[in-house]
Amino acid sequence: YEIGPGDTAIVKVAQAQLGNVGGDKYWKWYGFKSHVHWCAIWVSWCADQCGYIKSGTIPKFSYVPSIVDWAKSHHHWQSRNYKPSPGDIIIIDWYADGTRDHVGLVERCDGRTVYTIEGNRSDAVRRGSYRVGSGTIYGYCVPKY
Questions:
Q1: Are 22 and 41 in contact, with CB atoms under 8 Å apart?
Q2: Strands across the sheet with 113-118, in order?
Q3: Where does the pLDDT of residue 79 fall: very low under 50, low under 70, confident under 90, or very high at 90 and above?
């Protein structure tokens, strides 16, 4: 299939969540009883709103390394040098030390900069941006939308 067909439905869901602080509705939806790190849970919640968990397009996950393992085993993985499409899942390595620290959704990419929406970025849903190929980017899960 074509790499990175992209998806705007999940991006629209993500955009509608901008400004949420604390992530309560996401981690409660997942089944946690108290506040947890919720970046992965937020991506799962967005996917669920589009029916992508039920369809198997994206797995339900709460742990960043598990989406990386799933992407690699299902041939949905791209390196940091990939120019992503809207709806791709970006995996962040904050310290460029090989650790899969954080996850978000690609809003758009202009070829030089990747623009994202991320849950649990300073405990809120916020936008971010990264240079394509940056060491801060661990890689991408590219779902087959």
A1: no
A2: 77-78, 137-141, 89-92, 102-109, 113-118, 126-131
A3: very high
